[in-house]
Each structure stands twice: as C-alpha cells, then as structure tokens.
Amino acid sequence: MNRSQRIRGLIALAAVALSLYVALTVPVHLGLDLRGGTQIVLETRPTDGADAGGEATDRTVEVLRGRIDALGVAEPTIVRSGSDRIVVELPGLQDPRKASDVLGRTAQLTFHRVLGTAADAHETPQPLPKRPHERVIADESGQPLRLDAAALTGKDVEKAVAGFDQQGGAGWHVTVDFKGTGEKGWARLTGDAACHPAGDPARRVAIVLDDKIISSPQVAPSVACRSGIDGGSTQITGTFGDSEAKELALLINGGALPVPVETVEQRTVGPTLGAQAITASAWAAAIGTALTALFIIAVYRVMGVLATVALACYGLISYAALAVLGATLTLPGLAGFVLAIGMAVDANVLVFERAREEYASRRCPTPRSSLTAGFRRALSAIADSNITTLIAAGLLFFLASGPVRGFGVTLGIGVLASMVSALVVTRALADLVVARPFLRRRPHLTGLAHTGAVRARLTRTGPDLMRRSRRWLAVSAGALVLATAGIAVRGLDFGVEFTGGRLIEYATAGPVDADRARTALADAGFPRAVVQTSGESGLTVRTHQLTDAQAATVDGTVGGLAGRADKVRDEAVGPSLGKELRQGALIALLVALGAQLAYLAARFRWFLGTAAVAALAHDTVILVGVFAWLGKPVDGVFVAALLTVIGYSVNDSVVVFDRIRELVRRDGKEPFARIANRALLETLPRTVNTGMGAAFILTALAVLGGDTLTDFALALLIGLVVGTYSSMFTATPLAIVLHRRT
User: Fold this and answer.
1) Number of other CB atoms surrounding residue 513 within 10 Å
2) 8 A C-beta contact, residue 585 and residue 400
3) Rg of the Cα trace of the chain?
4) What is the rounded distance in angstroms from the CA atom of residue 426 to the CA atom of residue 349?
5) Beta carbons of 93 and 73 less than 8 angstroms apart
6) Cα torsion angle, 347, 353, 359, 363, sign
7) Distance between CA atoms of residues 237 and 212, nearest Å
8) Of 31, 385, 597, 655, which one has the greatest count of Cβ atoms within 10 A?
C-alpha cells in the first residue's frame, strides 16, 4: 500500500468514525409531521398609527418568518388565522418561552437627539411634552431624559452584528451599520450632539427599542460640532450577555413588526402524520434501499458490495452533518434523504463504467489498473455534475427562506457527502480489496472484467441515435406543448400551503386518537385534512375552504369519534407558503439556473451549457404539466419533489457533455454530431444503471409508502424518467443544433 492509499484510508476511517460518534451523541430534530411541537397563537393589536387588519397581519407574518429563521428553527408552520391572529407551530422546540418572547417583541428601533434631563427627577415618566413629538424616557440608570423626535429608525439600518470586545473591556455589544440616507442622518445626529459641551446630557444620543432606552452614549470629545461621526456605523453597548446581544441583533435585522402582537395561547401539538403512515414509509424506504443495493451488487459484483458499504457510509455522514447543523427532518425530507442514497450511487457507477471501458479496450490489463484509470477519468464528470448542484443548493440557501432554504442545506450536504463516499470511501475500500490474490486469479468477480449487457448490445449494434436530432427536438417540443396545455386547461390544484383554508379546533370530552380521526375524515371526503392533537383533549383540523354543509360533515365526524366535541375556533387561515416566500424561492431558482448556465458555459462551451439548462427547464415544465393533467395537488410535498428534480436533473446532461468534451479533444476533426452520438452511447450504461438504482427506491415509496408519500414518489419517478430522456434526446440534440449555428 503506497502513501496516497494510506492517506485515503485514514481520511475515510476518520470521517466514518467521527460521523458515527456524532450520530450516537447528537439528536436530530424531527418535524411537525413526525413529532409535533409547540403552537403559539399571536394576536395583532391596533395602534394610533396602524390598523391591525388583514394586510398588517400578513406583513407581520413575513417579519415573524425572518425571526424564526434567525432563531435557527427549521420547517416551522406560520399561517394567518382570521383577520388578526397568527398561528405559529415550531417543531420540537426546547425553549418555547424564549421563542414566544422573541416573536412577541415589536422591535421598534429609533435613534433620538437628547434635549436634556427632566426638570424634576420625581416627575411622571410621561409628562406633557414641552415641544411637539418630545417625550421623556428613563435611561439605563433610571434618569429621565427628554428626547426629540426620532431622527433614524430601524429602516435606516443595513445590518446588526453581535460581537465581543476583549481588549477594550466593553464586553458584548451590537454593531449597527446604516444604509442609504441613514449614514448622513447618523452623522447629522451626532454632529448636532457634538455642539454641546462634554458632560451635558444634550451631548448624548439615545437608542430606543420598544419605548425603552437601551443605550445613550456621549458623543466623544474628538467629534467636531456639525461634522458628526462618519462611516455609517455605531455600537450599542450595555450590560449584555451573549444571548441578549445576539437576540438584539436578530430583532434589528428582522425588522420591526408593523403592529404590536400579544401571545394569547401556547400549547403542545401532536404530529400531523399518524404512526401507521410513518411506519409504512420507513418500511418502504428500507425495502427500496435493499433492492437498490442488490441491483448494484448483481451488476458490479465485488465492486457493488464495496459501493453498498460506501453508500451506507454516505448515509451515516449525511445524517451526522444534518445533526451537527441542527436540521429538522420531515417525512418528505427523510424520503429525499433516502432517494439521495440512490442518487449517490451515480458517482460509483461513473467510476465503475469507466473502469470497464479501460479494461475492455486493453489499455489497462488488470482490474486494479483499470479501476485506477476509472477514478482518474471519471473525476471531471463527477466534479462538474456535483458543482452545478452545489451552485443551486448554495443560492437556494442564501436567497430563499423557509423550507426552500432548508432544502438547499439538505441538498448541499447530500452532494458533499456523496463525493466523500465515492472518491474517498469507495476508493479506500477498493484499494484494500481489488489487489487480493483471489481476485487477480478471478477478475470476473470484480465486476470490471466484462462490459455488461447494455454496453455489449450497444457495441454490437452501434445505433446512430443522433442522425435525426431535429426529430427528437420535435418530440420534446410536443411534450412541452402537451404539458403547457394541461396547465392552461386543467389548471393547478394548489394545496392549503398556497391557498390557505379553514382551521377548526375542537374541545373533546376526552383524548381522541388522531389516526382514527384522519381515517374517518378521509372516508368522509376530506383525504387532505391535516389533523393534530392539541393540548390534553383538543383536536384541530386544517383543510381547504369548506361550505357550510362540508363544515357540518367535519363537525359530525369529529363528534362521532369523541362523543362530544365543542367547537372552540373556526377561522379562515392564510397560506403557510406566503407570497414573499414564494417570490424569494422563484428568484433563487432563476438565479441558480443562470449561475449553472454560466458555470457550464465556462467549463464546456456556451451551447452545451445552454442545452443543459434548457433540458432542466423542459423537465420542470413537463413535471408540472403531468401533475396538472392527473389532477394531483401542488402542495409543499410537491415543491420538495420539484426542487429535488431541479437539483439532480442536470447531472445526466453534464455526464454526456463531459464525454463530448473528452472526445472533441481526442477526435476533433470528426463531425460534432457523430461525436455526440458516440458520447451518448458510451455513457448510456451509466445512465441506465443510475436510473435503475433510484427507480427501485422510488417505486417502493410509491407503492408501499402510503398516501403521504405516493404523490412525492410519483413526482420524482416522473422527474427521473423525463430527466433521463431529456439528457439523451433533448439536451444532446439541442447541443448539435446550436453547434451548427456557431
């Protein structure tokens, strides 16, 4: 064993050992659908300057969503209930009281010029103002200060960062950076204060949060009158601990609530999914994973066994990374995680198929040398396909919010863990096994000494699939027209997450089994109703908009189960995937597509990058169109499936284009269409085997996973089939057509 092999082995061992330790010691948070959590009901309050109506409540929902993201709580549910209530559900929260306090803070931040102290320290906290907009507020030491009208507000702040000053002795503080006119406003405010002598209260600037002075520093003697402090930045100091400083920065960054809110209820809620659905999904995932492992072993033999072990390590590494980052796992997230195991086999298949080619061409006489060449030649395809996916994951994380941002984290972790699994763990295991004497004597056992059924048939027949490239594009165009027609004619059946619906809460005579309630409501014609236990003997039903007759049916169904069910609340609820969240996700996706196009154009050529991104858009439109024709709901689960397809769809095209690039460098004088056809045929075995690996898992989820995961798995199966087709018969023909025009 040489030095590089020992290093790879040590890295693989360290990664697996560390991941195992984390998996055993750090718990993973489960989402509302699997475990339940804490429900907080907030009620908006009108003020003199703002009415607490539906519009103000909708704006408040978006501010609260930003605060929850900053708190590190993933996969929350936030909906408007009625015109002035907001229902917030936080999965598995350890400190619900802290969350309630942070959510309930109005966070109105203002900066004031100090006019002086109150004439009498014993006068009332709010005396009659001596000038318009003047008010009196006690400072940190209790001394009443007369403040002028606000010169700056939180809207003038660009960002706030909590920090610790070890050298200056100031301890924890919050650095505030101003933006736009706020920079000049801060200079003007401090310049006016600097015109007063040192020690004069009027030389101070008051920083007020929710009608409480949190800091009122003196302007330094070095600051000249009327010049002020430039640079557009200041520090808020005080008796802060680390949590107080970070909470203050969180509130400032999140912005002020349009209207004050008050916590009116706080309770524990049960999971939205039943135990039977969770168990069925777990069995489906286990069976699908086992079938994928058996398929890989049957195709690649000993190398397949090593790949299966590496995939188990991939799952362990990914799980540990999610635990360390504090990610929250929902049932679709877990299904996507299992699917990622099936997709992670792609890098192993790429390596093994290249090794088979090297062995068959006699360039490498032994399985060991062919495997080494396979890792070397497959590296560029693995890197390019994973980097394009990482670009999408990174932009979803930085530009989107809510569940879309969480998906970016999960996707990025899956990609990185896949590369570690294939390039480090699989190779380290192969280094140990492939050079064994019994495999040298029986090379066919390695799975690399034969070409495989698909490659053998293609080599024997040599079909020219790209001879009629425009016909393939015509077929793709026809599929797009059909999908678009479905969207236009049938429309999209948006779920409650997008449209809002109705929330009915019951107080029952005793505990009601949520599984029985779900089954009864499904039999009564409400299969999509979300049922949760609430408190000790409550039950909530969230569904689409109901007619009076439908509402009566729901009441009768719940009452029949509970014996007696008193209706506590019956309100219309807004969408949990709000307008701003949807717009942010759409912008993030468009920017991700543009970034992928730029990367692929730089790594390949512009027409190849354009063809790959066009095929991705083709897959997305067809998937949405098929769901429109089938009348399937477009809900949060479908969004997760669509994002998964977008994340992985471009991989097949990148693998084909990587082979085109290699062949162009080697046989540049050959017609491009013939090179593209050769690249397609040479990579087709990898495409088939990777697709089969994922199809086993998805089929198991669709057939055995129950109603909860059927649509999720169906969407991914459609995306898998369409993506495989488009990489061969949309992206490649389009690249040929675009090349002719260059």
Assistant:
1) 16
2) yes
3) 31
4) 11
5) yes
6) negative
7) 14
8) 31
Measured between alpha carbons, how far is 358 from 375 in angstroms, rounded to an integer?
A: 11
Given a contact cutoff of 8 angstroms between Cβ atoms, the answer to whether 153 and 233 are in contact is: no
pLDDT at 544 over 80: yes
- Going from the C-alpha of 60 to that of each of 23, 88, 257, 402, the distances in angstroms are 38, 12, 6, 15
- 649-691 pLDDT, tens digit per residue, is 788 889 999 999 999 988 878 999 999 999 999 999 988 888 8
What strand order describes the sheet that includes 135-138? Answer: 135-138, 144-153, 109-117, 205-209, 212-215
User: What distance in Å separates the CA atoms of residue 104 and residue 42, rounded to the nearest whole number?
Assistant: 8
- Inter-residue contact 211 to 144 (CB < 8 Å): no
Would you mind telling me the total number of residues written for the chain in this entry? 742
Give the whole-angstrom CA distance, residue 597 versus residue 618.
15
Is 729:476 a contact under the CB 8 Å cutoff? yes
> How far apart are alpha carbons 624 and 640 in whole angstroms?
13
Categorize the per-residue pLDDT at 394 as very low, low, confident or very high, splitting at 50, 70 and 90: confident
Pairing of strands 29-30, 328-329: parallel
How far apart (Å, rounded) are the C-alpha atoms in residues 542 and 525?
Answer: 14
Give the C-alpha distances (Å, rounded to integers) separating 690 from 324, 383, 407, 524, 725. Answer: 30, 17, 22, 42, 13
Are 729 and 677 spatial neighbours (Cβ–Cβ below 8 Å)?
A: no
Bridge pairing between strands 205-209 and 109-117: antiparallel
- pLDDT band with cut points at 50, 70 and 90 for residue 10: very high
At 634 the three-state DSSP class reads strand
**In the chain, what percentage of residues exceed pLDDT 90?**
22
Residue of 312, 266, 255 lying closest to 289 (CA atoms): 312
